[in-house]
C-alpha cells in the first residue's frame, strides 16, 4: 500500500506561483508512475502531469510551459511547480500513484492511490 499527502495549496493572486508537494510513504519501490491531477468545481478530474521512476515527464497540453513536475527520491516527495497562475487554474489538486507489478523479484497487486488533495484558488 501507499499513502499520499499533498500540501502547498492556497489562495494566490493571478500571476503568482505555488509549489505543491506530495509526500509518499508505504511500499514506495512498487510505484510505477506518479502524477498530479486537478478537479475544478463542476468539472471532471483531469491529468496535469506525470513522472516515471526514471524521471521522464509528461504534461497535459494545458499544462505545458507553466507547470513543472519533479521528484526528490531521497525525500520521497513529488512536486508540482505552477508559475504565472491564472484564475482558470483554480481547482483541487490531487497526487496519484500507479502501483504494482513486478519489482525486485516481488509481485505487487496493481492499484491506484490518491491523496486527499490540496486546494488552489487563484484570484484575478
Would you mind describing this structure in some detail?
By secondary structure, the protein is an all-beta fold. It has strands at 2-7, 10-13, 18-26, 31-39, 46-52, 57-59, 67-72, 77-82, 91-103, 106-114, 118-123. The strands form two sheets. Strands 2, 4, 5, 6, 9, 10 and 11 form a seven-stranded mixed sheet that branches. The relative contact order is 0.32.
How would you describe the oligomerization state of the chains in this entry?
single chain
Strand content: over 45%
User: Uncertain runs with pLDDT below 50, 5 residues or more?
Assistant: none
Please tell me what the overall shape is: elongated
* Total beta-strand segments: 11
From the N-terminal CA to the C-terminal CA, the straight-line distance is 40 Å
Structural class: mainly beta
Number of helices: 0
Order of helices and strands: EEEEEEEEEEE
Summarize the amount of helix as a percent range: under 10%
Average per-residue pLDDT, rounded, comes to: 95
What's a quick, concise take on this entry?
The protein is built from no helices and eleven strands.
Topology:
Elements: E1 2-7, E2 10-13, E3 18-26, E4 31-39, E5 46-52, E6 57-59, E7 67-72, E8 77-82, E9 91-103, E10 106-114, E11 118-123
Parallel strand pairs: 2-11
Antiparallel strand pairs: 1-3, 3-8, 4-5, 4-9, 5-6, 7-8, 9-10, 9-11
Please describe the structure with a list of short key phrases separated by commas or semicolons.
124 residues; mainly beta; seven-stranded mixed beta sheet; four-stranded antiparallel beta sheet; 11 strands; 0% helix
Amino acid at each position: 500500500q501507499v499513502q499520499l499527502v499533498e500540501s502547498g495549496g492556497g489562495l494566490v493572486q493571478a500571476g503568482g506561483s505555488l509549489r505543491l508537494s506530495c509526500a509518499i510513504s508505504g511500499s514506495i519501490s512498487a510505484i510505477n508512475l506518479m502524477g498530479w491531477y486537478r478537479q475544478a468545481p463542476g468539472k471532471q478530474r483531469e491529468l496535469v502531469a506525470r513522472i516515471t521512476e526514471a524521471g521522464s515527464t509528461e504534461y497535459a497540453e494545458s499544462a505545458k510551459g507553466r507547470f513543472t513536475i519533479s521528484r526528490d527520491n531521497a525525500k520521497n516527495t513529488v512536486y508540482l511547480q505552477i508559475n504565472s497562475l491564472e484564475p482558470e487554474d483554480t481547482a483541487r489538486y490531487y497526487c496519484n500513484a500507479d502501483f504494482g507489478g513486478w519489482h525486485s523479484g516481488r509481485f505487487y497487486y496493481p492499484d491506484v492511490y490518491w491523496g486527499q488533495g490540496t486546494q488552489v484558488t487563484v484570484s484575478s
